[in-house]
User: What shape does this take?
Amino acid sequence: MRYDTGIIRPEMRDAGVRMRIGSAPPADLRLVKKGLRTLHTLELMAVNIYRCQLAPRPGDLDRVLVAAMCNEMTHLQDFQVKLYEYGWRPSPLRWAYWIVGWCFGTFSRLMGQKAILRTGVWVETKAVHHYAELLARIPWDDETRAIVEKNQADEYGHIERWKGMLDRQR
Ligand SMILES: [Fe+2]
Ligand SMILES: [Fe+2]
Assistant: This one.
């Protein structure tokens, strides 16, 4: 299936929120819960990376970093909503990834534009692999699977954008 990665915040209607408590066998739900918590935590890190890559003084990359941050906020929101639809809560350990994201974002910003772009490529490449693994291993319901797939497509879009910008700097 193909997804339009130019849409960084897809429309969501009130009726799209649906409670899913007990909607699958317990063994499946255990896997879905683990997957949603993992994705929610990683997206929290991603939001922080792009947020912290934005310099206090405006720079050339700001527009694309703000767009990437917005897109990651959409992903975070997607997985947070799904967690609560199933009656679960985010991972209590997610603060550690908030700090990791802050470190990646802040230190790459201090090292300059190329470091920002290289960090983006590295982190997003890890992300698409992680998404692929979770898509293969977890019995997602159809609506959640479509969201996971769209968000993985967005991460591919981020890799392409950062790689293209790095190539143009050479
Ligand atoms: Fe993301
Ligand atoms: Fe991303």
